[in-house]
Structure formats: C-alpha cells, structure tokens
Write a structure and sequence with these properties.
By secondary structure, the chain is α+β, with helices and mostly antiparallel strands. The chain contains four helices and seven strands, in the order αβααββββββα.
Length: 174
C-alpha cells in the first residue's frame, strides 16, 4: 500500500512540474569543415545525397502521401526514419550558397523548423544547423518528450555534421 501511495505522489509531482516546463526545444550545432562552400552545398542541396551522410535513413512515404517530385531546391524533401523518430521534411527557403530552410513534420503530428547555414572562412566553411519546434502531445508528457527530443536531435545533428565533414574533406583532397 505504501508503494502505491509513493507512486501516486511521484506521478502527481511529475505532472505538476510538467505544467511549468517548456514544450519547446531548440538544438543548434556547428562544425568547421576544410572544404569550399560549393562542395558542401552540393551534398546538402540534393536529397539523393542525404543518405550518404545523414543518420536518417530514407523511408517510404506513409499511405496517402506522395514523395517530393523534385530532388533539390524549394519544394524538395525526403521521408526519413531514425533515432529521433519518423517523418518527412520539405525545403521551404533557399539562399543559394548561404544555406537553406526546411520544415520537418514528425509522424506524431509535431512540426519543427530548421535552417542550415554556410559561412565561408576562406579555406574552410562553418556549417551551422539549427532545429526548433514544440511537442504538443500528450500534454502532461510533452515537456519531458521535448527534452528527450532535443537530446536525440542534438546527437543526430552532431553525427550528421561529422559524417558530412568526413565526406566533403575526403572529396576535397582528391
């Protein structure tokens, strides 16, 4: 009986604390790569190249959804699955060699916005990746899910940047 009371009290405390925690997350990662902006841009702008360097694996579209008809530029996108979940994204803004913006739709119904920027540093390029969104469901668990999502997304962005760096630096040496 005491164990049951303790579990109920712990659940109530977690629920009350959860009311005051943010449901939003923002993850930002950056890495300097020894490669020109154009080399990096080629790998990032074309959706066919993402499977070469991202931890997210291309997945078939869910029933009733059509894959993007374009492979690069505004309107192109990719269905994916990975440690942080499943979903799809669509490129919504393109600023040429400076970077691009995209929107991510997760399979649980949440939406996030992201941007990737390239800063020319001469012989090197700084690549910065920011992903921000909110977790809305279920309301009591949403803040805790937002924290875990930020952790997994941060890990994924780090690995993506490392993979991209290895790929473009190997290519640039050739």
């Amino acid at each position: 009986m005491n164990t049951l009371k303790l579990l109920i009290i712990a659940a109530a405390i977690l629920a009350i604390v959860g009311i005051f925690l943010p449901r939003d997350y923002r993850v930002s990662r950056e890495l300097i790569m020894r490669a020109p902006v154009m080399t990096i841009q080629q790998h990032v702008a074309d959706m066919n190249n993402w499977t070469k360097w991202t931890v997210w694996k291309e997945a078939p579209p869910p029933p009733g959804k059509q894959p993007a008809q374009m492979e690069s530029g505004i309107g192109s996108g990719l269905y994916f699955s990975g440690n942080a979940g499943r979903g799809w994204f669509v490129i919504t803004g393109d600023s040429g060699v400076d970077g691009f913006e995209y929107v991510v739709f997760s399979s649980d119904g949440d939406k996030s916005k992201a941007n990737v920027t390239f800063t020319d540093l001469g012989a090197e390029t700084k690549v910065k990746w920011i992903l921000a969104g909110s977790v809305t469901k279920p309301p009591i668990l949403a803040p805790y899910l937002a924290m875990s999502k930020a952790f997994f997304l941060g890990s994924s962005l780090n690995q993506n940047l490392k993979n991209l760096k290895n790929l473009v630096e190997q290519e640039d040496r050739k």
